[in-house]
Write a structure and sequence with these properties.
Structural class: mainly alpha
Mean pLDDT: 83
Number of helices: 12
Strand content: under 5%
Oligomer: single chain
Largest sheet: none
Order of helices and strands: HHHHHHHHHHHH
Number of domains: 2
Length: about 270
């Protein structure tokens, strides 16, 4: 799993560098998605070649008859990732029906800034996966030790970063060069979403415990319900609160998912 972390980190660095040096104006913004996708593909190919040579991995052909079984085994993982993408991005799609392009742009900027820390969470999640697999075999005391020595300090660090984002919202609004009329809305949005990363961070080890055990179906159900709740909240809140309604819907959804994941994990792994 550390190799997945390294590959993910390198792809993000490559994407940022290419965007910075290539995209010089609004007319070239169409290249951003290609750069993001191309960076992931390129780093993925390089990582596969390197790891295949380092560990003498051999690629084998999977015939058509093996595809149904692979789809059946991976359906929960696919549904989980699809649900996360759905509740994270459905809001901005629904907003497009109710608000103008300027407000949509302000929301998009605030969302991207507030969720930057999620990339750190992804790398942390990948890095601790194998350790959690080992801890799962050692029992309650080992899990308590892990949460106290490694996860708690990391969670506090993420919380400090979120607090800095909340306090620095006015300064950030100046750095992104928004119009004066848009700065107040931007600050409100950023402060609504500033603590979402730490809310997500809290459930990381518990969510992974469900995944690496035989309870992946439970986490999939939670994420699916979260996606449904987020869409419903957006439909109800956007007509009254505009972009702030979408920010609130995302905050409530992430909080609900974290609480349910922790409760489900405690039910299976923390009974003494």
């Amino acid at each position: 799993m550390p190799w997945a972390t390294y590959a993910n980190f390198c792809s993000k660095i490559l994407s940022v560098c290419l965007i910075y040096f290539w995209v010089k104006g609004a007319s070239e913004a169409i290249w951003v998605n290609m750069i993001l996708g191309g960076s992931n593909v390129l780093i993925g190919v390089i990582a596969n070649i390197y790891l295949s040579k380092k560990y003498q991995l051999v690629f084998q052909k999977q015939w058509l008859k093996g595809i149904p079984s692979q789809l059946k085994e991976g359906v929960f993982y696919f549904t989980s990732h699809f649900s996360v993408s759905l509740y994270m991005h459905s809001g901005i799609i629904l907003l497009g029906w109710f608000v103008n392009e300027q407000m949509l742009g302000v929301y998009s900027i605030a969302e991207k800034i507030a969720l930057l820390l999620r990339q750190v969470l992804v790398m942390f999640s990948q890095a601790i996966y194998t350790q959690l697999c080992h801890i799962l075999t050692q029992g309650y005391e080992a899990m308590q030790s892990f949460l106290r020595k490694l996860f708690l300090p990391f969670c506090i660090l993420v919380g400090v970063g979120c607090l800095g984002c909340w306090l620095g919202a006015p300064l950030i609004s100046t750095l992104v060069k928004l119009d004066f009329s848009q700065k107040s809305l931007f600050v409100q949005l950023l402060r609504y979403m500033a603590f979402i990363p730490v809310i997500v961070c809290v459930n990381i080890p518990f969510y992974q415990l469900l995944l690496i055990s035989d309870h992946g179906k439970s986490s999939t159900k939670i994420l699916s319900w979260g996606a449904l709740v987020c869409i419903l909240l957006n439909v109800l809140l956007i007509p009254y609160f505009s972009v702030l309604g979408t920010a609130l819907a995302l905050l409530v959804t992430e909080s609900m998912i974290s609480v349910l994941v922790i409760l489900k994990a405690k039910k299976y792994f923390f009974r003494r």
